[in-house]
Design a protein that fits this description.
Blueprint: H1 6-13, H2 18-33, H3 36-46, E1 55-57, E2 60-62, E3 66-68, H4 79-84, E4 89-95, E5 108-111, E6 116-119, H5 127-138, E7 145-149, H6 160-171, E8 177-181, H7 196-209, E9 214-218, H8 224-236, E10 241-244, E11 262-265, H9 269-283, E12 288-292, H10 298-307, E13 311-314, H11 316-321, H12 325-339, H13 345-348
Bound molecules: flavin mononucleotide.
The site of flavin mononucleotide has 28 residues, from strand 4, strand 6, strand 11 and helix 11.
Amino acid sequence: MFQMDYEKIKPLFFKLDPEYAHHLVTAMLQTGEAVPQLFNRWVEKNFVDDERLHQTIFGRNFLNPVGLAAGFDKDAQMIRSMTAMGFGYTEVGTVTPKPQPGNPAPRLWRHVKEESLQNAMGFNNRGSLYMERKLKKRFPYVTPIGVNIGKNKATAERDALKDYEHGIRVFRNLCDYLVINISSPNTPGLRDLQNEKFIEALFGMAKALTDKPILLKIAPDMENEQAVALCSKAVESGADGIIATNTSIDYSLVAQPKEVGGISGKAIREKSFELFDAVASELFGKTVLISVGGIDSGYEAYRRIRAGASLVQVFTGLVYKGPELAGTINRTLLKLLEKEGFSHISEAIGADRR
Ligand SMILES: Cc1cc2nc3c(=O)[nH]c(=O)nc-3n(C[C@H](O)[C@H](O)[C@H](O)COP(=O)(O)O)c2cc1C
């Protein structure tokens, strides 16, 4: 797969149902992991390991700042492949306490003209026990792993805290950071938890359970002031970082939207950047900021870094730009650092804030 020209195979891929295409990619990656020669070739081709991109964050060495966003590897089935694809770190999940099937299909669509996706997956995953077993097999990890945790659909909102507590207990010693996901649009009522009272209770509970860094992932569909207030409350309550953003329910962003789910990719780029930038204007220097949403090039990643992101993540860009994206982003980042006279990424992080 990695030796092929992605632009050539993309039209064939795009003839397939998007969810089926994802299963196919998963199967191909798992096969690749099992063949050491192939695996090593992928690593050599895609993994950029340059001191100028190394950072110590959460006490862990991040060899490059480009991570895989949550939702691609929901059950931690391909974390080794992600290193081979050049990712400096991987966020698995969203995982819920119990397995659940998610929403009925079809639930994933492409908006090809806009280089975007729309998904209403609904946290389909095999549950925490399955992921725990998968992670234990790979522990300790080559590159940092984040575990993104959520609540089961069947769990009432008033019991949501218990689901997050479960996730923290199971994964606190099996990851480098945890993410609280209350920003998916596909679990009814979940985004209602994006309120200061819940955030305070959540981080109060979480910090009593573990010293592991715990981050909050937010939706882009908020007023800037609301997002800033929410994230500030999270940090005050003990959050170690913010991930902005999840998918958007602003259906005006694409020409032919479905009536359900969240939009990702190029269509949300500006919205996602704007919200990230607002949060960074208040929290840069006070917490770790991760930017995600519509990043598909080194230039866009660099814009987020200059705005205050220590790390970035991609998902939809992989579908449109192909499996070499992380490597391409990292190589471009190195060129941009050089061009701007920076000797290390840390000098570029937040350069636009100073
Ligand atoms: C098919 C699909 C499934 C996703 N599932 C999750 C998920 O389970 N948990 C989560 O926090 N984000 C999930 N996301 C959101 C991504 O992690 C990311 O925040 C969003 O897609 C914006 O980034 P992008 O424009 O690079 O795709 C999902 C996105 C897509 C496209």
